[in-house]
Request: fold
Amino acid sequence: MTIEYKTKGVCSRQMKVKIEKGVVQKVEIIGGCAGNSQGVSRLVEGMRAEEAMDKIAGIRCGNKATSCPDQLSKALQIALAEEAKRENS
Reply:
């Protein structure tokens, strides 16, 4: 399943996250720093969503309260919840 997440407090505008059976299949980060976005996306692809969330949640960008990796952890959390909801319906 794929979700679209509108980011908050960072340079990127949106994230598209695809997970299947709790594993990150694809991440597309729209806007922000292209190199960092591609790097983070490739690093988490193939990883269990919960493991990725544990590694990237809470990362800050400069003096901001969040970062693109932190926002990705929030998107993954939503994707996991949506996936669980679908499985239970």
